[in-house]
Amino acid sequence: MNLFLSQIAAIVWKDFVTELKTRELFSAMFIFALLVMLIFIFSVNLSIVKASEVGPGILWVAFLFSGTLGLNRSFVLEKENGCLMGLMLVPADRTVIYFGKLISNFVFLTIMELFILPLFMIFFNIDLIEHLLPLLLVIFLGTLGFCALGTLLSSLASNLKTREIMLPILLYPLLVPIVIGVVRMTGQILAGEPLSEMMNWIGLTASFDIIYIGVSIMTIDHILEE
Amino acid sequence: MVDNPKPSDFAIEVRQLRKDFGVLKAVDGVSFDLKRGEFLSVFGPNGAGKTTLIKILTGLTRPSSGTARVAGYEVEEGRSEMRREIGVISHSPALYADLTPMENLVFFGKMYGLEHPQESALAGLEDVGLAARRHDRVRTFSRGMLQRLSIARAVLHDPSILFLDEPFTGLDIHASNVLKEHLQTLHNNKRTILMTTHDVSCGLEMCDKVALQVMGRFAFFKDIKDVDKENFETMYFDAVRNNQFTMGIRSH
């Protein structure tokens, strides 16, 4: 168990050192999310539409689209120079690779989201401070589900020539339950409703997070094998 | 049970191994044994199934039928334990281009569960003569340096069996000679080595056993002392020529 955890930590450490050196992933995701928000700001007349009604959708579109950029990059790095083969040759369960990549993707995306939130607050003139804790819980659940499924599918798509196209085609339809859940919950939070009012959505989103992780554990061995 | 390997004098035991990709038989009924400490060179034209054979023996892909034991472990059943006993060097170096050699080896050391990954990494870099470049990014390395670093990565955990998949590809004469010296040292240290190569003189010079793989099958498998090198070279080049002819027919 100890080796299992230290192997996962080693993969996360490796991804962080790589990102600190290249800064490719974070900058690309952040700029993309920012651009998505800017486009929406200019296309939505906030004097007619309430920001708390359109904001949640725009926020999650920015998170998910920019997150897809990160997911695409995640396994491409492993394919370069045959590194994935090197990883598959170490005496480790293949779920180590999955959990290592999942944690890296989750942390990178969460950091990007934390940078985007203040900008969202300014652009849409919404006070997030008083709703911060419930909002962070929703972001945690949504990001976890997105990364759990996205990491699995990006490992699958990394073997395809058309991986940049295939990942969103595979990912978005399967993400629908989580997207509906987090957008609804974000809207309710911004409207000032307490978390106790949205326990059904929390349960649904958490259940899909668990299902995605469970399916990934069961299938990653076959997906990574050639 | 995968924890207790079957005791055997053989490092690698292969019986009627097959791998099909649709109608293509990449490995077609290959059987052979390799004793501990022996060096086997496998020659063969492109597409003969050499890389697929190595992928099966290292647990990277499953065979369609047949059995293979490496270090006493069934390649399908005891793969995690078996992987502690093997090291693989291929034409892809399996190194992260944006990390330094030190960071790469420390990472793989942690993945292999080494107690002192830093010390092991440094010792590995000194062995392959790259200690002075340990803080440079791997991206800046030449092909020869990458291959030396690849050796350091493959032997970091002190495996008893090494698989080398065309390790001389893309190397100039100097880099080839340096690599050859490293391989000879590894062989002298009683490691079992299975190498696929197109370099006939180099492969014959280092090995104890020779195999020629053609269209998935071992057309030839002998002790080096029973091999007439000139005849073998002729046979190998004929196999390559016939293979090109066959591939030409297939593509039309």
Structure description:
- Chain A has one domain.
- Chain A is globular, with a radius of gyration of 18 Å.
- In chain A, helix 3 (51-79) packs antiparallel against helix 7 (163-190).
- Chain A is mainly α.
- Helices cover 83% and strands 0% of the residues of chain A.
- The relative contact order of chain A is 0.13.
- With 252 residues, chain B is an alpha/beta fold.
- Chain B has a domain at 7-85 and 197-252: Rossmann fold (3-Layer(aba) Sandwich).
- Chain B has helices at residues 50-57, 79-83, 101-111, 117-127, 143-154, 173-188, 200-206, 229-251; strands at residues 10-21, 24-35, 39-43, 65-70, 73-74, 86-89, 161-165, 192-196, 209-214, 217-223.
- In chain B, strand 9 (209-214) and strand 10 form a beta hairpin.
- In chain B, helix 3 packs across helix 4 (117-127).
- The radius of gyration of chain B is 18 Å and the shape is globular.
- Classes of the chains: A mainly alpha (226), B alpha/beta (252).
- Chains A and B meet through helix 1 and helix 4 of A and helix 2 and helix 3 of B.
User: Could you tell me the mean pLDDT of chain A?
Assistant: 92
Count of runs of 4 or more consecutive helical residues of chain B: 8
Rg for CA atoms of chain A: 18 Å
The CATH architecture name of the domain at 7-85 and 197-252 in chain B reads: 3-Layer(aba) Sandwich
Based on CA inertia axes, which overall geometry of chain A fits? Answer: globular
Largest sheet of chain B: 6 strands, mixed
Detail the poorly predicted runs of chain A: none
Segments of chain B where pLDDT lies below 50 for 5+ residues? Answer: none
Order of strands across the main sheet of chain B: 6-7-8-3-9-10
Would you tell me which CATH topology of the domain at 7-85 and 197-252 in chain B applies? Answer: Rossmann fold
By secondary-structure content and strand pairing, the structural class of chain B works out as alpha/beta
Distance between the termini of chain B: 49 Å
Total tally of structural domains of chain A: 1
Which oligomeric form is depicted? heterodimer
